[in-house]
Amino acid sequence: MAALFALLPLGYLAVRALERGPAYAWDVVADQRTLDLLGRSLGLTAVVVAACLVLGVSMAWLTVRTALPGARAWSVLATLPLAVPSYVAAFAWLSYEPDLAGFGGAALALTLVSFPYVHLPVAAALRGIDPAQEEAARSLGHGPLRTFLRVTLPQLRPAAAGGALLVALYVLSDFGAVSLMRYDTFTRAIHTSYRASFDRTPAAALSVVLVVMTIALVAAEARTRGRAGHARTGAGTARPPVPLALGRWRPLALLWCGAVVAVSVAFPLGTLAYWLTAGSSATWDLGGLAETAWATLGVAAAGAGLTTLLALPVGVIAARHKGRGARLLEQAAYAGHALPGITVALALVFFAVRYAYPLYQQLPLLVCAYAVLFLPVAVAATRAAVLQAPPVLDDVARSLGRRPWQVLREVTVPLAAPGVAAGAALTFVVCMKELPATLLLRPTGMDTLATRLWTETGAGSFAAAAPYAAALILLAAVPSYLLGRHRT
Amino acid sequence: MNELHVEGLTKSYGASEPVLRGLELAVPAGALAAVLGPSGCGKTTMLRIVAGFLHADAGTVRLGDRLLSGPGVHLPPERRRIGIVPQEGALFPHLSVARNVAFGLTGADRAERRRVTEEMLELVGLAGYGDRMPHELSGGQQQRIALARALAPRPQLVLLDEPFNALDSALRAGLRADVRAALHATGATAVLVTHDQQEALSTADLVAVVRDGRVAQCDTPQHLYGRPADPWVAGFVGDAVLLPGTVEGKGTALTALGAVPLATPPNGTRTGTVLLRPEQLRLTATDSEGAARGTVTDICYYGHDAMVTVTVDGHDTPVGIRVAGPLSVRPGQETGIRVVGEAGLHP
After folding, report:
1. B217 strand-pairing partners
2. Contact B105, B152 (CB under 8 A)
3. Where does the ABC transporter domain lie (chain B) (predicted)?
4. Residue A439 lies in a domain
5. At residue B212, what are phi and psi to the nearest 5 degrees?
6. What is the pLDDT of residue A230?
7. B134 contacts A237? CB cut-off 8 A
8. What is the ipTM of this complex?
9. DSSP character at residue A374
């Protein structure tokens, strides 16, 4: 059911793309410009993913496994960029240095907002690894670095690959940052095409290419997962690890963490503060701000709730079954995420207008769009969390008289709960930041912080936009902070 | 009552060789049976079918008068009233020890749950540990709690899947005895799957040796060791001395170690393999009456006894002789060998 729901927009795309016959659609796709877009999108994705892996894995290892001073605080700080929408980051860098517009600026802004997607699952996986394995490697004559490379890193692969996939999907579907940086990718071209004409076919055809790229990415990630079981083996229940002393590397590690946090958190906040003070002339509409913030919280909570509910069965099946059906189900859930928000929104408008007119421009439709868009975030979190509960516990619970659904409720879900909650919090944050789908689907008269921010920025009034950006970041920081503090 | 009957169990995974080929097992009510076999023999598959985690291709599983698995019948695990103790315990890491033990006590009210939990903790010798979390226990304690958890709902049958594997040997012996006592105290029928013959012989009332998906022999430990069904079983449950022999009439067989009395009269067989245990051989003086002669090639000293390897004149493979008490021989020394007791003859 959940997967079917996620596939809805795909059906729309197929209908739209083929509306004028396959030949016309092929003409659009085979165009030289499409190839250019493909190169630009893939290049940007590769660079951002590589940079995020370096940032995310290094920060996770330093904060979880080493005796880094203030490790907990760094860990929390490293999740805060999640609260910074890509368009705010892009805006901050542009207002500082307008020459950054283009590939470099887009890559910089996207990396700095999306590396927590790698940091969070890798940190969780690091906490789940039995320290005895690392101790065994050390006793076999491996130094700390070789132990990390040969024992720890291979086990982090599923988590890192899952995170990298999320980053790649984020980059492919990002609209705000690339638009502000004036770097043409698929999403920007699709948006322009939608806005430019009533002929929906070119946009739909381009979207299909984008979806094919996503499926290839998801398949590649599934391959790295392989056949290895990742539930912990070994006697009894793991003991907490002893943090590794950093010795003379300590200043360097601190410098690294400091630099990462400075450019990803401090810099956009500083820029925002500057605009807040600079815009003393702009009117501060506190009532409007509070009302918008309340509406944003409500709609994001509904979106996160529905998404988590739908992700739970998919994540459990993806973790527990290795069959082809389970794989397909999981991949279907990922399909939604690479679709740009605007495509999902238009698909839902299309369906609502034809089959459920009362829902058109109503809140439930927007919540559905969030669920389609962010199902992968919640599924990835659920799957990783369920993998932490060894299957033998299911057997034991069954033998003690529990039905399968009771096992799920009493054993699997409680064990996976921290991870599932992390997924829900993450979904909440991304729902709050979502822009293109919200712009199209919000009920008439309702504004979220993101849409207000967009409107004001579009009108060139950066100072008027700043309070909304600040409120958005503050509100999104709360779940991000909780995410960073939570320990599995 | 609680007797277990497994009949004609077959199972194969996909297109590969069958893992079980008509396995039969009968365990009387209240008995502790060990299923012993090398890794890959199908013993764990059998356990998982009995527990209900796997579907058999054919065959039946009966517990008392209830049919658990059979043609068209597959009772789900939660309705079988079978407790399992997995390798390494597998305690629920998110629940305290007391809540782990009480996990299977669903129908009971609070006071009853509390009473049974305390009773079980006492039974496994860990009274007062209820508030701890699993990771605060040692491996042996976790295993005891796993047993208490399995026994708490008063199952008709308890399955133990190599439960002592991860423990050091000093801990094992004590835990084995305690597990036996706890099982007998509750009266549950139990099946212990293991690849360790010492564990099987010392713990179980009944040992079934499994080879290639079938039970090769099922007997009491003494019978299994003393009268193994064939040389393979003999070698698997203990050290064996195998000698070619020719029947001489009057119930003896002529071997490289001289004439050996046979336990059962040969039914028509003329030649075969004569089977002795190392403790049935004695070292004697080289010139002693009626003794075979050989040369000591190696000595393994265990403290309570020693295994002396001797090359016997007229026999290719060296034989092992278990010697209790002080040793009077050295490698390279000539010795006489005498046989005590009766031997088995296998075609």
Report:
1. B209
2. yes
3. 4-237
4. yes
5. 50, 45
6. 47
7. yes
8. 0.72
9. H
Q: B346 CB contacts (<8 Å, ≥6 apart)?
A: B230, B231, B272, B273, B275
Q: Are the Cβ atoms of A400 and B138 closer than 8 angstroms?
A: no
Tell me the CA distances in angstroms from A120 to A64, A172, A419, A484, B92, one per residue in order: 11, 20, 10, 8, 25
A171-226 pLDDT, tens per residue?
888 887 887 788 888 878 877 777 676 666 777 777 778 777 877 877 777 776 65
CB contacts of A399 in chain B (<8 Å) are: 51-52, 77-78, 80, 82-84, 150, 155, 159
Task: Give me the domain span that covers residue A26.
Answer: 2-226+258-485
Distance of CA A336 to the CA centre of its chain: 12
Quote the CA–CA distance of B46 and B66 in Å, as a whole number: 18
Q: Does A377 map to a domain?
A: yes
| Residue of B45, B47, B103, B164 to mutate, interface with A, max A Cβ within 10 Å | B103
List C-alpha distances in Å: B100 to A343, B75, B113, B248. 49, 24, 11, 64
**List of chain A residues with pLDDT < 50:** 227-237, 487-488
Residue A106: CB partners within 8 Å, gap ≥ 6?
Answer: A44, A90, A177, A178, A181, A183
Q: Do A397 and B149 touch (CB under 8 A)?
A: no
Backbone angles phi, psi at B278, to 5 degrees: -55, -30
Distance, CA of A48 to CA of A42 (rounded, Å): 10
* Tokens standing for residue B304: 């309570």
| Count of domains forming chain A | 1
Q: What is the pLDDT of residues B140-172, one digit of tens each?
A: 888 899 999 999 888 999 999 888 877 777 778
Cα–Cα nearest to A2, from A325, A330, A303: A330
* Topology of the domain comprising B4-231: Rossmann fold (3.40.50)
Indicate whether A113 belongs to any domain: yes
> Which CATH number do you get for residue A30?
1.10.3720.10
Right CATH number for B240-346 from 3.10.20.30, 2.40.50.140, 3.40.50.300, 3.40.309.10? 2.40.50.140
Q: Which helix (H) or strand (E) holds B57?
A: none
**Domains of chain B: which residue ranges?**
4-231, 240-346
Residue A237 inside a domain? The answer is: no
Determine the residue type at B36: L
Alpha-carbon distances of B258 from A271, A424, B247, B312, B316, rounded to whole Å:
101, 81, 12, 11, 15
